[in-house]
Fold these 4 entries.
Entry 1:
Amino acid sequence: MGSTEIANSDRERVLCLIKEHGWNATSFQTLESHFQYWFDVPEACVAYVDTGSAWVAAGAPLGPTDALAAVARRFVEAGRRQGRRVCFFGTERRFVGLSDFGALVMGSQPSWDPAAWPDTVQETSSLREQLRRARAKGVAVRAVEASVFAHSGALRDEIEAVLSRWQAMHPLPPMRFLVAAEPFGRVGEKRFWVAEWQGRVVGFLAAVPIYQRSGWLLEDLFRDPQAPNGTVELLVDAAMRCAHEEELQYVTLGMAPLSGPVGILLRIACRFGNSLYDFDGLRRFKLKLRPTGWTPIFLSVPQGAGRALAVYDVMEAFADGSIPRFLWRTLWTAPEFFVRLLALLLIPWTLALAVATPTDWFPTQIVRGGWIAFDVSLTLALLWLSGRWRRWLAMVVAGCTTLDAGLTGWQVFAFNLPRVHTIGHALAVTASVLAPTVAAAFLWRVVWSRYRRGARSERAGKSALVTEHSHSNGPPSLQR
């Protein structure tokens, strides 16, 4: 037992297990294309990704409740025989209570009782206002039959274009493992809604079933950058009211990562990583929809395994198996994180300048004071830029960093090199030249990259307007 062969028959077998035992909100997502499957006995399996050093499972095993702990232990043993570490990401209290695995809170998951949704809207003025705004702008939401998306077509192509524009709004490169955007996989099991405005699609929502909870996970939810305010709320409202009509008992939008009762180190990571991924913004969005409850989501780790290493394995799973490659792509798409890192690195360097022996490193005290003032100003500018990217500020900072590199190089050759007598001095002098040179090259590269991306987005916007015009004047089949 323990086959990892991925075939259509395997996925059909997993789907049957999901329909019979799928209780976690993530259960249906395990059918996505990048998952592998380990079958324990005919009625149980684990969906996971192999990062090369670890097997990271998506949620708890799929199987009878009373067998989950035993299945999980056998999966751990199978992984170890293959030289892999093992962890379970996205588990809930049920699995934590049944198993002897260690548990680390990774976030919180909001849930709604669809029967209470009409009252929630009535009692929440901010939510009502968002819905009113979208309707006043002319946004309309309608349900779409799954059969429409079974094959490629005009509507599906338009939704995929909206998805591309929505992804371009976000700084991180596309991730995998429970967050991959595959809205048209297994369409026969899903429910769909589209938001339309001025004759074109501006928003999309796909709900996947949580069979054993009689509920839905609102999995794929995105909008066009030009969509009016309230479009997303209008989509959620349509899905909630449909769930109420169908007497479902549970709806969730999935986990808000690094929110809720997470540990101090994860809180620090959340603060530092907000420039890469808007953890706080995602929680605030879900909070304003007034969930009826929040439940903690865990990373479950076998006894004796390191939790820090398990967190790293989960990060590799989301990064599609290579954190260095993911960070390299992120370097150009989400520079705010790295700009903040540059600012933080500049702080100890500036302190070192302040305590350095003047006669060894600077021609005069005035030069040292000038460098300290310059680096303090540059640090503040970098921190400002890391909070919100502004092209003009990025160009000013890049220009100042280039000036820093040039002046430092001139001082090194004119004053410092003749006074270098130790390896430590040589390393410090080399770092003083290389650091601003590399930083300047990075900043100018990002400025140019952002400029090109902005130009592409502008062309895409014009293309969307042309498409809208052609659709509004096209045959009836295109006037959705």
Note: The first helix runs from residue 8 to 21.
Entry 2:
Amino acid sequence: MLVREAHSHYAINCSLLFKEYPLLQRAAAAKAAGFGLVEYWWPWDVAVPSDSEVTAFVDAIKASGAQLIGLNFFAGTMPGPDRGVVSSVARQDEFRRNVPVVLAIGKELGCRAFSALYGNRQPGEDPEQSDQVALANLAFAANEMADIDGTVLVEPVSGPGAENYPLKLADDCFAVIDKLEAGGVTNVKFLADLYHLAANGDDVASAVRRYAGRTGHVQIADFPGRGEPGTGDLPLSDLLADLWAGGYDGYVALEYNPTKPTAESFTGLPVLPT
């Protein structure tokens, strides 16, 4: 398995992998394992952390020698009950206060892809109003990120606590993206999380073929189980080949729960197309 040749396009999700280390040491661990690209969920439980906390995060990434290629916006309580705040009527101001912080980190570290988790339907909020808030928030974030040629990503989510998350299939995500594009917002793209699509019962192969050219980022874990490639039966090599054949040429983030020490979990990685 020629894994080393594929590392230039693989990224480590440091919120799930290398949990053997404190969060700020995981990028260095990824780099030491041969991966120069990393991504993170939002590292804090508040939308606007202190300046010292942001500085410590930025300094740790710089010191690691790894490149940050993906960062989530603030998503409330993860996992559940929030799974994002983009569509929350009550938390619109909170989300918008988070955007400049994300933008500043992106500028400082050269990160250009930012995942905006839509969020669960919230009790007492009208779904139609929530969807309108989501569209407004995504357009706001996309406009801000355009300053650094950034892309806002919309993704499906599965699992316990995501029963009320409205974007489960690829088509659900594109219903949002299409509305934004119709309004002139062109830097909101699809995050093709192959595990979440499979877990939600989507036809993953069909979705990949339809939307490869409109995909802004890819994340993988095997299904079932969300372990490393080779622990389930999702045809990851074929799906990745179809993505490349359809025009995708970006990064593939490893966003799985290792079933063994992280550094020992890479032996089954598919060789990425070139």
Note: Confidence is low (pLDDT under 50) at residues 1-6.
Entry 3:
Amino acid sequence: MGAIFGTVLAFLIVFGILVFIHEFGHFFMAKLVGIRVEVFSFGYGKRLLGFKKGQTDYRISVLPMGGYVKFLGEGIFEPGRALAPDDFMAKKRWQRFLVILMGSVMNIVLAIVIVAGTNMAGVALPEYLDQKPVIGWIEPGSPAEKAGLRVEDEILSVDGKKVPTWSDLELAIGTKPDKQLTLEIKRDGQVRSAQMVTGKEKRTRYEIGYAGFAAKILTQVQVVSPGSPAEKGGMRAGDLIQAINGQPINANKFLEVIEKSPGKELEFSLIRDGKPVTLFITPRQAGKVGKIGVLQSVKSVVKKLGFLAAIKESVKYNAKLFFMVIEVIKNLLTGQASVKQLSGPLDIAGLSYETFRMGFLAFISWIGFISLQLGLINLFPIPVFDGGQLFVLILEGIFRRDFSPKARQIWMQIGFVIFIILIGFILLNDIVKRLPNGWKSLVPF
């Protein structure tokens, strides 16, 4: 029950912030250009509670799946009706365009502000993400091994797209499960190409592309359990594990080596405060595997930037994420990506709770991540979305006349049907990802 309550609470916090910021953008710009705001609502449907101040009813409605701001005259399709000076339709087309656009702009601005804030506060990130994608480990039998890739190969591009860092490479692979990719690699100073068919990451319900290689990732000890073999052997938090029994050890192999060695003394080569240290530790038997009593992670670095540098890095990061979302959506529409990569309310709620448990910085970063996507998706030219209304305004600007009330009404009715279908599909997709056989679970034979 505690997890359910936490999930609901985290989702409401995330959703509440994003909806408020989005609708406040519409509200602020409407006030700026002199449009009367009749309703500012969190949620759709019947009014549950709220208060009225001035000419605006601030309310919470029964369906917490979004929110809206209602302007005077908006959605009224009566030909020849008299327009008050503060009526939505009484304003110039460019003013209406700015009012509709500002919701998504505010979501994008929020994402930039949050990332800039975390950059200034200082956030620990895996060190390897900003490094060149030089392979440090390959899983036996993996797509990478079948493609003939080797340790020390540097991957330069994926399907012609440059991947200067491991962060770029992970995005390129992760968004393309079960696809044949052309890799450009550098080996022994020579550039060559290789064909690799990706798999699917088995540790998640999302269909994320899997290659089976990793960077040269050092394991960093985070916590040493009191009375454990690691503590008795002299291991400390902050130690970097370089080798076990003289063999260089990658973070992906660290646990595997220990679990296969219960009761066997192992020689650990470490780096502590910049100096080499050698320890001898014997993993204890825990069931069928060995344990030494540590919590470890990949080596991280704390990035802390000044104000201007933080803003610059935030804009670069969000721009990269922006185009990544566009790429994923393009792949979905062309069938190159699975719908399991889509996340709906159930997924967002679950991930919101997970980041909530991880701490303030993780939670606020998640809000920024979702805010950017909400701002972008809302710009799609789909009726009911802000982008649908912007699309109509652009067409009216091109033809230099407003569409008839009947044409607007038909457009909105089409949009409502599309919206209901999209919401239904996204919710069903969330549910299906939790079923044992995916979409096949819905077929009774």
Note: The longest strand covers residues 37-53.
Entry 4:
Amino acid sequence: MGRVKRNIPDWIRFKIPSGAAYRKVASTVKAHSLHTVCVEAGCPNVGECFACKTATFMIMGDTCTRNCRYCAVGQGTPKPVVGDEPYHVAEAVAELGLKYAVVTSVTRDDIADGGASLFADTVECIRIKSPRCRVELLVPDFKPDMPRSLQRVIDAQPEVINHNIEVVKGFYDKLRPLGNYNLSLELLKLVAGSNIPAKSGLMIGFGESMDDIRNTLEDLVHAGCRMLTVGQYLQSRRDGFPVVKYYHPDEFNQISEMAYNLGFDQVMSGPLVRSSYHAAEMAGE
């Protein structure tokens, strides 16, 4: 599979990971045998975020049961989940002194509740170890039994529940063949109805039009989603979907303005924006 060399425009710049804070986060994650989406998905902001002592913990292993063509996370048959993983995430959060923690996961269609109980247990463990830490969950679609699984997550009362729509509706078949656009919208609608802020993220650069983007943002607003991230897709593996277009920062600003006009309350839109980028800032921390 391997990484791919990218011929990217001048306005996209990556920071080389370094510094004591970066090393502290990396060593803490390693000491607890944890994963971060920052590393597994090849996030371009890993250096910046680790240097600020922030990371998005990825529970339930590092292998996803889906086959999305844009994602750098490993795909295939995952190992059994580690039962004490929520405890170790909470330990890492406490050791790093985090005031805002983001927890996500690979998609585990092989688990009856999609891993919802592990998300809830992780929130509860963080609350015990770090009572003042606010928690954001970036959850999959819990396809095996979404309403019941999502309710388990809602009952844990995280401060924000994020679920990425990922790509515009017309690209699901070619990019997310095991995903379900309408199911994702229904999940966000249920989150919004619970009075927990609903957040979502969109990647662009696959060949979608501005009308495609607008239509997807309208669907998100109608579902009750009021927090949005929009970022540039970057091909991260050789067999990944190729980048069709690199959007200029001015175009990201236009998308941000569009989103606010449609009814979003918080929008972060830019070439290197990812779903948990500056998550605490978006949540008003």
Note: The beta strands are 35-36, 56-59, 63-64, 74-75, 100-105, 134-138, 160-162, 198-204, 227-232, 266-270.
